[in-house]
Design goal:
Number of strands: 0
Largest sheet: none
Shape: globular
Helix content: over 70%
Distance between the termini: 25 Å
Length: about 70
């Protein structure tokens, strides 16, 4: 049960960080240019980390619901 709760919290945090990352990219021209060079999910995760956002590549393949 604890693992399930922890996983749900991590997924929620990951989704929130992913959304915040893309909100930042809409305001940051340099970040937006870097996004144009991304070709695989792991590169997106690494770019997110360098910008201070932590999200999982496994979540990138799932639909986002706001």
């Amino acid at each position: 049960m604890v693992d399930s709760v922890h996983r749900t919290q991590m997924n929620t945090m990951s989704k929130e960080n992913f959304i915040k990352f893309f909100e930042k990219s809409s305001r940051d021209r340099g970040l937006n240019e870097k996004l144009k060079t991304i070709s695989v999910p792991d590169q997106l995760v690494e770019l997110g980390k360098t910008e201070g956002f932590d999200f999982l590549s496994s979540r990138l393949m799932m639909p986002l619901t706001l």
